[in-house]
Amino acid sequence: MHARDEWILVFDSGLGGISVLRELVQVLPGERFLYFGDSQNAPYGTRATEEVRELTQRCIASLMPRGVKAVVIACNTATAAAIEALRAQYPEKIVVGMEPALKLAAERHAGGRILVMATNVTLREHKFCALMDRFSSVCRVVPLPCPGLVEYIEAGCLHTPEVREYLQALLAPALTDGVDAIVLGCTHFPFLKPLIRELAGPQVEILDGGAGTAQQTRRRLEAKGLLRGAGDGTVELQNSLGTPQILEVSARLLHAGF
Ligand code: DGL
Predict the structure, then answer these.
(1) Stretch (H or E) spanning 54
(2) Which of 19, 154, 188, 205 is deepest in the core (most CB within 10 A)?
(3) Is the CB of 19 within 6 Å of ligand 1?
(4) Would you give the distance in Å from CA 37 to the centre of its chain?
(5) What are the distances in angstroms from CA 90 to CA 135, 187, 225, 226?
(6) What is 192-229 written as a DSSP string?
(7) Pocket of ligand 1, candidates 77, 149, 183, 250: which has the most ligand atoms within 8 Å of its Cβ, to mutate?
(8) Is the CB of 122 under 6 A from ligand 1?
């Protein structure tokens, strides 16, 4: 740990991690956040696991020289594929990952039917299968892969008729059997929460892991004495596409209501 290691690096395959960054900024207002979205290579969720791991490691390695005290993998997919490798690679750093908020959903809806919307990689990897096994006696878990959905958010389309149609077709069969909660197991999906809420109905609870991840990051920083007190926190947004458009959409997602 060097005196200049003051940034919290928040990483996602693209724009989704900004939903987590929003929570982090609320919980840690004095911190300096460097957000990096790899939109050039998004989506990660339909790639081979090895490829996701390599892309994630490459992005993180390129940003470490900025002076990073903690890394938040604000991506369920990259966490599933790369968190162990990252922790082994940076043993002296805080490395926080994400997983679908199934534990929370099971606690709140014991005996219920819980839909987990996530990418193919997240749902097929060991991390989620173990989580599902753990809670399968408490509730009925229904995994729902959503290939194609991330692309709408990457394009900044949160309310278009196309995304509505896509979601309706995806959710309708799952909803006919009754659902108690929907877990948004991909950090892109909280941006579609109003639409998902409208399609699922007010009786279905919609949960995501953003707030829990922010609290976990706070706890880890506190435990290591690395918290930066309230005050002049900053956010720097970066993206592998590097175009003015993607940075404009990033800023819009960070600041605007959705
Ligand atoms: N935002 C990522 C997640 O939480 C995945 C998006 C992608 O497929 O690239 O899983």
Answers:
(1) helix 49-63
(2) 188
(3) no
(4) 11
(5) 31, 23, 18, 16
(6) GHHHHHHHH-TTSEEEESHHHHHHHHHHHHHHTT-PPP
(7) 77
(8) yes
- Torsion from C-alpha of 239, 240, 246, 250, nearest 10 degrees: -20
Ligand 1 mean position, distance from CA 77 (Å): 5
The CA 139 to ligand 1 mean position distance, Å, reads 25
Q: Output the residue whose Cα is nearest ligand 1's atom 8.
A: 45
The answer to whether the CB of 209 is under 6 A from ligand 1 is: no
For tokens 């908020």, name the residue: 101
Ligand 1 center–CA 188 separation, angstroms: 6
User: Which residue numbers are catalytic?
Assistant: 75, 186
Is residue 59 scored above 60 in pLDDT? yes
Shortest-distance atom of ligand 1 to CA 43: 9
What is the share, in percent, of the chain residues with pLDDT greater than 70?
Answer: 98
Q: What mean pLDDT do residues 118-141 have?
A: 96
With the most atoms of ligand 1 within 8 angstroms of its CB, the residue from 73, 183, 186 to mutate is 186
- pLDDT category, 258, cuts 50, 70, 90? low
Q: Which of 80-89, 93-102, 247-256 has the lowest mean pLDDT?
A: 247-256
What's the burial of 118, exposed, middle or buried (CB within 10 Å: 0-12/13-18/19+)?
Answer: buried
CA 168 to CA 149: how far, in whole Å?
A: 12
Give the pLDDT confidence score for residue 256 in this predicted structure: 75
